[in-house]
Amino acid sequence: MIVTRRALSRRTLLRGMGAAIGLPFLDAMAPAFAASSIPGGRPVRAAWFYVPNGIDMRHWTPAEEGPLGTLPGILAPLEPMKKEITVLSNLTANWGRPLLVGAGDHGRAAAAYMTGMEVYRTAGADLKLGVSGDQVIANAIGSQTKLPSLEVGMEEARMAGNCDNGYSCAYAYNLAWRTETQPLPPISNPRNLFERLFGTDIVEAPEAHARRLAMRRSILDQILGDTQRLEASLGAVDRRKLDEYLTSVREIEQQVQRSEKEGLVIDPGMEKPYGVPAEFPDYFRLMTDMMLVAFKSDLTRVATCMIGREGSTRAYPEIGIPDGHHPLTHHMGNMTMLDKVREINALHLKLFAEFLAKLKATKEGDSNLLDQSLIIYGSGLSDGNVHTHDQLPTILAGRGDNFVTPGRHIIYQRETPVCNLFATIAERMGVRPEHVGDSTGRLPGLSLS
Amino acid sequence: MQSPFEGKQPLGVVYNTTMSRPDAALTLALLYGFAGKREARMGAVCVNGSGLGAAVFCDVVHRFYTPGPPRNANQVLPPGLAASGTLPPDPPMLKAALERDYPRSVTKVSDTSLPEAVLRNGVIFNAQAVIVLSAPATYLAKTLELQGVNELFKQRVKMLVVVDAGERQDVPAMRRLLADWPTPVVFCGREVGEALPFPASAIGKEFAWSPKNPVVDAWQAFRSGPYDAPAWDMAALLHAVHPDLGYFGTDAGTIQVSDDGTMKFVAGEGAHLALRVDPAKKEKILQVLVETAGAKPAQPQPRVRPPAK
């Protein structure tokens, strides 16, 4: 790294053998940052959080349009973040529906939601779908960051096999589709995600890599030289910011190492890959902490997070629910099952709210990361019991750098494609696609100014 | 797209209307009459050029003619409504029906569908469809420009019937639509509807099976006293559903849209067809219209098998 008296580049990396760590926004970057080509001058980030199996909508939809009052039960965990979210009602993922092809709603739901395209029914390798909303953006602006996009998941991805009525598992396990035939599998292993973020193309010798992991040495050791040189050129405030940031990276690394240690002694009968925290909330926090760092250090501006693959049967013993999520959503009106579905929905939102709070607490210049982001939380199913693909549960969090006036519930016309939201976000990110999937235009009314 | 049910479904009808004339209300009754005979089904109805009340009316008529709970939430598309900006006023003829206590599921704009989406979905949900356009072409032209829709319509839409009841058209949209439309286009001109006056006598007689009917309410509210109404949209729908039964003659030519929004058909070389009423068939056509529109809807069949004796 060469540090000059000129403004520090936003794309500066601290490098070492097998490591390349991006930096948070520092005051020393300000002049260079102001010259960014992104509209508005500051980068906007976009992320998609996908929750499987729909939502108990009776406890999701606010009663009134306009300013958010007391939030319905499932949304209650978002109460502290109420001023940061916009609830969008009546959006539709049309191609998730049976239309003329019949059963397979879970097989289609996530794929149709993200792409707004017909899901070609196949359990083989001849996948055919479309470019997902996130990749419309990543394909256009991804070259501006180290990673064009980041794909995170909390279930190990399957790329083949028949998952639902002849639909390939690739449709249910992937959110991001770079082309109509190429899904980008989400990373579900914390170590792999860590290496993706902080690893480098300069590959460590396998023996050295294994030795470092075995000795539990930190990746920060690899970049010590660069770190010291950079610190010498920074003011006191930036030095403190850098220290805090690298400490947070180290904490994540330690969590990953702890998970790996736990992973060595877990019951081999558990459906949990090596290195994954035993409890789902810890897993969620660890993975989303890394997403946060990726945004903070501008490693990428586009991310997807599959909280569970569509049709997920994950159990939630942490909150006293040993039943599978998907079977519970086919409750047929059974109130005991409905209560459990609602508790699972609320747990997901509690964890999502924590993530939003962390974004909000992360300063970036005179703004913060949440104000600079557009974070979608949603599903390709609304009522998981009868498989409806309209009136989808959708939250848009953040302001996208003064693009959204949050704290409101907006009700659109029925059948408004959810891809209209994706197209709107793409436009905010500086991309002007003619269409995103089946979009018919842009979503009006997101800003009051 | 994949469609294993192709050929097994009745023809889907997508009706783009202003719902501002009595023949438009009667066309809904005619469509549900065809549906009762499984000769066609409601694909979608989309209102533009009129206010929310027109969409509510379409929903009211739908629920009146298809009593019982919806079979599937995704198969019953809410009516489309062009609602960007200030809504036009409701057609006066609908006021009486809207004030009565007919069941309805549409009460506000957000209960209606985005016009482009519903015009497309009306086709997607049907293996074969026809579209009857009796409104400004604004939204149908927009729909055609959506990704994949031209190809979809090419595969599914047997014909587009354009109705000219003397109302002004959206000139650029209609010209674009005619230039880009991928399947046959049929013109139902003013003289066709005027040659087929739907008889006032049928209103009292054929619709007597119910003490109240939103279609009759609209008819009676349009004008006081008995009157016969030109059946523009009904003629268009009859031809769209049964083009092979020879109700109408056709002439080749071109639909032309003037700068002032009026339309005319120029016979001769051209890719379009225009409907022609043979005076000898007029009574037969009117009989079909009256009997089908006036048919009492079939009651939904119970889905539970009766207990064995």
Question: In words, what does this structure look like?
Answer:
The complex is a heterodimer of chains A (449) and B (309). Chain A has 449 residues and is α/β, with parallel strands linked by helices. Chain A has 13 helices and 18 strands. Chain A has 2 domains: 1-35 and 191-275, no CATH class; 44-188 and 280-292 and 300-428, Alkaline Phosphatase, subunit A (3-Layer(aba) Sandwich), CATH 3.40.720. In chain A, the strands form 6 sheets. Chain A has an 8-stranded mixed β-sheet with strand order 4-18-5-17-16-3-11-6, with helices on both faces. The longest helix of chain A is centred in the middle third of the chain and has 28 residues, at 236-263. Chain B is of the alpha/beta class. Chain B has one domain (11-293): Ribonucleoside hydrolase-like (Inosine-uridine Nucleoside N-ribohydrolase, Chain A). Chain B is globular. Residues 3-7 of chain B have low confidence and may be disordered. At the A-B interface, strand 5 and strand 18 of A face strand 3 and helix 4 of B.
List the helices and strands and how they pair.
The complex is a heterodimer of chains A (449) and B (309).
Chain A: E1 13-16, E2 19-22, H1 30-34, E3 45-50, E4 66-67, E5 85-92, H2 105-115, H3 133-141, E6 150-153, E7 162-164, E8 167-168, H4 169-173, E9 176-177, E10 183-184, H5 190-198, H6 206-214, H7 219-222, H8 224-233, H9 236-263, H10 280-296, E11 302-306, E12 315-316, E13 321-324, H11 325-329, H12 335-361, E14 363-364, E15 367-368, E16 373-378, E17 394-397, E18 408-417, H13 418-428
Parallel strand pairs in A: 3-11, 3-16, 5-18, 6-11
Antiparallel strand pairs in A: 1-2, 4-18, 5-17, 7-8, 9-10, 12-13, 14-15, 16-17
Helix pairs in contact in A: 3-13, 5-10, 9-10, 10-12
Chain B: E1 11-17, H1 22-36, E2 40-47, H2 52-65, E3 80-81, H3 95-99, H4 115-124, E4 129-134, H5 138-144, H6 149-156, E5 157-163, H7 171-180, E6 185-188, H8 190-194, E7 197-198, H9 200-206, H10 214-222, E8 229-230, H11 232-241, E9 249-257, E10 263-267, E11 272-276, H12 282-293
Parallel strand pairs in B: 1-2, 1-4, 2-3, 4-5, 5-6, 6-11
Antiparallel strand pairs in B: 7-8, 9-10, 9-11
Helix pairs in contact in B: 1-2, 1-10, 1-11, 1-12, 4-5, 5-7
